Amino acid sequence: MAGYAGITAGYLILGDRPCLVETGTSTSAPVVRDALTSLGVGPDDLASVVVTHIHLDHAGGVGDIAGYYPSAEIVVHEKGARHLADPSRLMASARMVWGDQLDSLFGSLAPTDAARIRTLGDTGSVDLGGGRVLAGHYSPGHAKHHVGLLDSATGDLYVGDAAGVYLPETGDLRPATPPPDFDLETALRSVALFGDLRPQRLLFSHYGPVADVAATLERSAEELRVWVDLTKQAHAAGMDLDHAVAMVRDKTRERYAALAFEDAETAERFELLSGAPSNVAGIMHWLDLAKPESI
């Protein structure tokens, strides 16, 4: 993504019905295809492609991957399905946010034939064959079209962005609270739900597997509260977005080893994945919408 390696993950579940979880961006689609080929998955072998949500760093490659693998069904939460079939509104919204950066960051989401899209509701499952399923668990807060996915055979839980952004080099975990859907209580309930599912590992889309489930989810909830508390202070003080971002960035800097890492690229990737401007903007938007007594 954006010319960086190791910034977002797709996961291949091998079995009777091979399944790809997350496609990454459109610009990453050829990389994903070549990786699947190297693992012995041909054009007619992939049974399903599942995305945790439709943000372009997770699902931007869906249309391309669907073209490479014509036998695969495309699985997404029901609130995101129409945007995969007709991405025009999603792409226009993304263009407003990212401007000219959109092309280099994400590329363009190609449409997927609506007949190939299958939706998940608050629950639902994907057949992996041999009695094995990928169970969907609705987990909004980060986005209203977000699902976590639990593998019945391994206990692996694909957490998308609902548990935040994980950086394997440093072990940092940072929230992902972009506009327009962020809601603190909903986000915390999603994290609690993940704990109740008792997974063996958390598989972050950004990125990689983490085995220390309880401590990681506790940290995820803590990070959400820290960023919200600081942004509330800025909001109450009447700061505009730029000043709020500067304040929150300064007060959270020491929480993350990546920002003091000797490798500048690591810090750049971390900021691209979970940038203070996006996080603070999402929280500010929520604060503007929330009733005073609820915050």
Automatic annotation (TrEMBL):
SMART domains tied to this protein: Lactamase_B
Gene3D superfamilies membership: Ribonuclease Z/Hydroxyacylglutathione hydrolase-like
Metallo-beta-lactamase domain location: 7-206
InterPro entries attached to this UniProt entry: Metallo-B-lactamas, NDM-1-like, RibonucZ/Hydroxyglut_hydro, ST1585_MBL-fold
Transmembrane segments: none
Listed SUPFAM superfamilies: Metallo-hydrolase/oxidoreductase (SSF56281)
Molecular function as annotated in GO: hydrolase activity
Sorted UniProt keywords: Hydrolase
PANTHER family: METALLO BETA-LACTAMASE SUPERFAMILY LIPOPROTEIN (PTHR42951:SF22), METALLO-BETA-LACTAMASE DOMAIN-CONTAINING (PTHR42951)
Name used for this protein in its record: MBL fold metallo-hydrolase
Source organism: Sphaerisporangium album
